[in-house]
Amino acid sequence: MKRYQAHLQVNEQSAAPTSFRHSSVHLSPVDPVDGNTTATMEHHSYDGVGNGLTKSGAVAACTAMAVFYVAILYSPTLILRLPQPTSFKSFMVRRFVCAAVSSVVCLVYCSLVLPIRKWDASLLFGVYGIRLDHAWQTLIYPISLTSCMYMGSFVRNLFSVLEARNEYLNAGGNPSLFCKNFLQRFINQAIPMVYSISSLRNYFVAPLTEELVFRACMIPLLLCGGFSTSVVIFLCPTFFSLAHLNHFLEFYVREDYTFLKACSVVGFQLGYTVIFGAYASFLLIRTGHLSAPLIAHIFCNFMGLPAMFSRRSGMVSVAFVAGMLGFLWLLFPLTNPLLYNNITGDCKCWHRYCSWS
After folding, report:
1. How many CA atoms within 13 Å lie on the side-chain side of 230?
2. Catalytic pick from 42, 44, 134, 210?
3. For the whole model, what pTM was predicted?
4. DSSP type of residue 352
5. Angle, CA of 216, 125 and 132, to the nearest 5°
6. Is 210 a catalytic residue?
7. CA distance readout (Å), 285 to 185, 219, 320, 357
8. What is the DSSP letter of 83?
9. What is the average pLDDT across 118-145?
10. Which of 34, 36, 53, 42 has the alpha carbon at shortest distance from 13?
């Protein structure tokens, strides 16, 4: 078994007045004969802030990407003058293409704005958090953490299944036959969902493109622009929520909602997207992996809003509170950067997890 000892490595490189320094921790292997396992402390100098990217420039770039992500969805009919889609499927496919184009454009634009001195594929993928290392950690830990918020939903669904089982048994049914019928019903409902165009939007296209644009592109820009970590976590969701304002026109014009109803629905959506956006930004900054907020995004889209109470049982509220307490208790331990990264001295301005151990 490898053992580790502490090494103190200080980077004495000069830094411009606008740059900043940080300290990070990593484990360094030494001779097995030596003593206890300890951590290595390194001091790194970020040079991204002094390379032309300012706070106002980062905000302007993020605003432009948010507007472009929404505007391009309406470009086929408003700019290209294409005929209206003849079906919901063709309408969604057109939007999928627009979302894919906007994602690629934003990725390229972000790579041009960021202070990247050496261009290669591995570096660019690392900027956006697109990585293959620590794969199982980025899947298991974030989804386990996110599941804590849905303890009320899990308990409510369990009670629904138990009630259905009791009704079935009271009617003289066979317990084993109930399990078989329940499983068959679940499969019959799941199969159409796999081939549904709405499922493709909710569980693949929307999460992937939104995380690429509103997390993978915007967070490095804001971090390298000089914003603090806490500001980025709550500023980035602002752009994410503003990108959902187009839903107001869809509700008010297409769905014929009243003005107040459309405002209330969109207002609720904005509040929810801000909260989730802050959590997703936290995951990306802490882990350095885009797959962490992506898997959480897909899971939340599948589960919907967490169940906080139920008229049939107060246990749903108890489970929700217990789950939220567990979520807060596990939030930092399950997102510890050392679980997801082999931290070294080569940390750029977009690698904020280096100083957040």
Report:
1. 0
2. 210
3. 0.81
4. G
5. 105
6. yes
7. 41, 8, 27, 11
8. P
9. 89
10. 42
